Amino acid sequence: MAESILQTRQLTKQYGHALALDHVDMHLEKGQIYGLVGKNGAGKTTILDAICGKNHVSEGKILFFSDKGERDVSRMKEYAISDLGIGRKFQAPSVFTGITIEENMELAVAKRHSLYSTTFRRLSKESREYMNYCLDFIGLSDKRFSYPGSLSHGEKQWLEIGMILASRPKLMLLDEPVAGMGRRETEKTAEMLKNIKKECSIIVVEHDMQFAKEVSDTVTVFHEGEILDEGTMDTVQKNQKVIDVYLGRG
Ligand code: ATP
């Protein structure tokens, strides 16, 4: 039987009288990519924020399964959740622009080993090798001594994906990673994610339906804080309720 990586139980987030998440039950397995789709305001970002600890939910549990066992992360701090193995990429790239691409990656690797206060040179041979692997994986080895400002929009997104990868997460949360990318960059990103999922499950919020279909093993359609449907993109696209409230718009 497939192993769980994350389960939400009756997850609820209330803003005043409005429910951004309404008793959501999700079950995510290892080695899979989960696409979250839905209209603006459906609750997609709210659930990512809840899983990474940026925002705490009003009710419910978020069970994360790692080599440390089962943990309810719903009330844990962001850094502790990140230490457990959940990495988050926000919509806007958040790389450090005043240091080189390699130094950004060194920081990401060092963070995992709590070496923030020490110098870069202290990275172990193994950590340095893994950092080189990550730089290669995102296709930025040749640009390692350049500054992030010189990168294209897509390359900045890849640098950030590489930095998350460098912390060796078990679950990666991505918010619209291909927004603003051209078709070739989007395709390259899809390839990257499919390679990453072998080691790390992924939840990706996406408005680009073609990309969501390309990468997702399971698509979850959110509507007004609830799950409207779940399954392969082909299946959910045929659901009349999904067509009416989401796909049928405009
Ligand atoms: P989008 O695709 O536009 O990013 P989304 O599916 O990610 O939308 P959320 O951002 O999760 O939707 O918002 C879900 C609901 O919660 C919306 O009705 C939104 O207005 C509300 N909401 C989100 N953040 C807050 C907040 N800080 N205060 C009040 N309401 C909020």
Q: Helical residue percent?
A: 25-40%
Query: What is the global morphology?
Result: globular
Bound molecules: adenosine-5'-triphosphate
Q: Which series of helices and strands comes N to C?
A: EEEHEEHEHHHEHEHEEHH
Description:
This protein has 250 residues and is of the alpha/beta class. The protein has helices spanning 44-52, 78-84, 101-112, 125-137, 153-166, 183-196, 209-215, 233-237, 240-247, and strands spanning 4-15, 18-29, 33-37, 59-66, 69-72, 86-89, 171-175, 201-205, 218-223, 226-231. Strands 6-7-8-3-9-10 form a 6-stranded mixed β-sheet, with helices on both faces. Strands 2-1-4-5 form a 4-stranded antiparallel β-sheet, covered by helices on one side. Helix 3 packs across helix 4 and helix 3 (101-112) packs parallel to helix 5. The relative contact order is 0.18. The model is unreliable at 115-119 (pLDDT under 50).
Describe how the helices and strands are arranged.
Blueprint lengths: L3 E12 L2 E12 L3 E5 L6 H9 L6 E8 L2 E4 L5 H7 L1 E4 L11 H12 L12 H13 L15 H14 L4 E5 L7 H14 L4 E5 L3 H7 L2 E6 L2 E6 L1 H5 L2 H8 L3
Parallel strand pairs: 3-8, 3-9, 6-7, 7-8
Antiparallel strand pairs: 1-2, 1-4, 4-5, 9-10
Helix pairs in contact: 3-4, 3-5, 4-5, 5-6
Bound molecules: adenosine-5'-triphosphate.
